[in-house]
Automatic annotation (TrEMBL):
Protein name: Uncharacterized protein
Region (Disordered): 23-58
Biased composition (Polar residues): 23-40
Organism encoding this protein: Rotaria sordida
Biased composition (Low complexity): 41-50
Length: 58
């Protein structure tokens, strides 16, 4: 371990950066829908007219 790494640990710089990054990620999660949520939303919007389909015997 380098002296710079030791200093960063002693000064909690790494911990502070990890916390800030985590908070940013959580904030982004809460403000933008996830891909899964968006896909479900799109799917629900596109399936509104499915009741009009008739089954055809082949």
């Amino acid at each position: 371990m380098t002296s710079e790494q030791k200093d960063r640990i002693c000064n909690d710089i790494d911990t502070q950066m990890m916390i800030e990054n985590f908070q940013r990620q959580e904030q982004l999660k809460s403000t933008s829908p996830t891909l899964e949520q968006q896909t479900i939303s799109d799917s629900n919007e596109n399936n509104q007219n499915d009741d009009n389909w008739e089954s055809v015997q082949t």
